């Protein structure tokens, strides 16, 4: 099983998002998509700056942003299924080409998950990959990603969130960061 986090920034380029979802649809292995929050999460950040509400509220709103993206992905790919409950993901992968995880804020109130902007969909994808005991975690980004960086260097450069390295410590799955173009090429070469 592969967990694939599709960055919310892919939403700004309709062709890239559609191509990434087409790529996911053609992967032969079981796939779980973790959606980024995209423009919906950007609006949460802007609202928090304007209204100065707390991190816990912002975190819950950002999770709702991921849920909105999950619905968008489902509307583009009706054959995919949206699942909130982590325990139902394995069963769903038996009957669908891909599962889109729509995280539940009450489940994520786990004490190991900090309610702050340090934890974004990057770290939540790493958390989910651990929960599912997956083989691989792929993060697809719009930004260019130098190939020779360590995870810590990627975190330091802001290519992944500030909690990502901690969420990936002592994991057994492979981690790959791709640009949208690299992702599509990787699965079609």
Kindly describe this structure:
- The structure is a single chain.
- The protein has 189 residues and is an alpha/beta fold.
- It has one domain: Acetylglutamate kinase-like (Carbamate kinase), CATH 3.40.1160.
- The chain has helices spanning 14-26, 38-51, 55-76, 89-95, 121-131, 151-156, 164-168, 180-187; strands spanning 2-6, 31-35, 81-83, 99-101, 136-141, 174-179.
- The chain has a six-stranded parallel β-sheet, with helices on both faces.
- α1 (14-26) links the parallel β1 and β2.
- α1 (14-26) packs parallel to α8 and α2 runs antiparallel to α3.
- The model has no long low-confidence stretch (mean pLDDT 93).
Number of structural domains: 1
What does the overall shape look like?
Answer: globular
CATH fold descriptor: Carbamate kinase
The chain-level mean pLDDT equals: 93
Oligomeric status of the shown chains?
A: single chain
Give, in spatial order, the strands making up the sheet with the most strands.
Answer: 3-4-2-1-5-6
Number of helices: 8
**Top-tier CATH class:** Alpha Beta
User: Quick one: biggest sheet?
Assistant: 6 strands, parallel
Radius of gyration: 15 Å
Number of strands: 6
Task: List low-confidence stretches.
Answer: none
- The CATH level-2 architecture is identified as 3-Layer(aba) Sandwich
User: Helical content, roughly?
Assistant: 40-55%
The ordered H/E elements are: EHEHHEHEHEHHEH
- Proportion of residues in extended strands: 5-15%
Secondary-structure class: alpha/beta
The fourth-level CATH homologous superfamily is Acetylglutamate kinase-like
Ends: how far apart?
A: 20 Å
